[in-house]
Amino acid sequence: MGNRSMIQYLILMLKGMAMGAADVVPGVSGGTIAFISGIYEQLIDNISNISINSFKIWFEKGFKTFWTQINGTFFLYLFLGIGISVFSLAKFVSYLLVEFPILVWSFFFGLIISSVWLIFKVIEKWSLTLFFMTAVGAAFAYYLTRVDTIGFIDSEWYIILSGAIAICAMILPGISGAFILIILGTYDKVLNAIGDKNFLIISLFAFGCLFGLFSFARLLKYLFSNFKSYTIAVLMGFMIGSLNKVWPWKETIIKSKEEIIQYNILPSDFAGESYILSASLLFLLGFFVIIIFDRFSPNHIKK
Q1: What are the distances in angstroms from CA 100 to CA 3, 282, 294?
Q2: Using CA atoms, how far apart are residues 165 and 55, in angstroms rounded to an integer?
Q3: CA–CA gap between residue 234 and residue 134 (Å, rounded)
Q4: In sequence order, what are the residues at sequence separation of 6 or more whose Cβ sits closer than 8 angstroms to the Cβ of residue 244?
Q5: Which of 95, 174, 190, 293 is least buried, going by the fewest C-beta atoms within 10 A?
Q6: 114 in Cβ contact with 239 (< 8 Å)
Q7: Is the pLDDT assigned to residue 251 strictly greater than 70?
Q8: Distance (Å, rounded) from C-alpha 168 to C-alpha 63?
Q9: Structure pTM?
Q10: Where are the alpha helices (DSSP H) in the chain?
Q11: What's the CA gap between 141 and 130, in Å, rounded?
Q12: How far is residue 249's CA from residue 291's CA, in Å, rounded to a whole number?
């Protein structure tokens, strides 16, 4: 784990960049990229291995021993890649979503469908119970996509809570951090805080992220160790349920300044240009990007 070559660490950084790029957009999960690229369980293990005892080792045996014990170089290259993508692609992706929403969402829809198919193949023997768990995960994720955005909560504890919940997306395939922030009504607030260098909000959000990261990772490690097939089934359900949020063709109804409702519609019912041909091509591109990514992954998922 700690004996990677420089090339392997650079590949790890590229995987981090892919995770960061995915989490910039609501509806696409960096955890899915981690799962498909073969670093998901290692990421969970490394995070859950960090504890109070790890910091005791720092004070008793020095930083080098602490760094080795937590596999710090793994985190360094992975989070470096994530950071590069988040800070370099955020504005670009936001521009594309504003100018070409149907085409961008079609691409991401293809990414998620392909990821669902690959994760489906991870479970060798399906049962009625596993299908039920998938349905539960899908229903819960669908419910999240239908929850009204909370735009009036401005308290400090809510910013911390937003960070704690949103960071789970990095280690939970199927739900993106940006998507969670939109549901909680803090997406714009956090983005503006970063742009305006509001260090109070940034610090509160970061604290929530750290708390959520280290507490939720332990739960996931336990679930993967003891109920792996059931956990994967639920996660796949999350991905299926989140498709409601990324459907490219939507009708927007503005009921009031605070209430904006979107409905999924067929391309033929879309009032403007539906871009059906271009959208279909980008859907296929997104689908095969994940297939190719898996094909050349060291954790290639076989039938």
Answers
A1: 44, 12, 27
A2: 25
A3: 5
A4: 142, 145, 146, 264
A5: 95
A6: no
A7: yes
A8: 28
A9: 0.71
A10: 6-23, 30-36, 40-48, 52-61, 63-69, 72-99, 101-120, 128-146, 156-166, 177-184, 187-196, 199-226, 228-246, 276-295
A11: 17
A12: 25
If phi > 0 it is left, if psi is from -120 to 50 it is alpha, else beta; for residue 272 that is beta
Largest CA distance in the chain: 67
- The torsion angle over the Cα atoms of residues 202, 42, 285 and 239, rounded to 10 degrees, is -70
pLDDT digit string, tens, across residues 124-141? 889 999 999 999 989 988
Two tokens at 194? 């970063």
Residue ranges covered by each domain of the chain = 6-295
Query: What backbone torsions phi and psi does residue 274 show, to the nearest 5 degrees?
Result: -85, -20
Q: How far is CA 223 from the centre of its chain?
A: 19
Gap between the Cα atoms of 242 and 22, Å rounded? 14
Residue 43 CA to residue 120 CA, distance in Å, equals: 21
Query: What phi and psi values does residue 169 have, to the nearest 5 degrees?
Result: -60, -30
Query: What pLDDT, in 10s, does the model give residues 264-278?
Result: 888 888 888 889 999
Please report which helix (H) or strand (E) contains residue 251, including its range.
Answer: strand 250-254
Amino acid at 225: S
Phi and psi (nearest 5°) for 264?
A: -75, 135
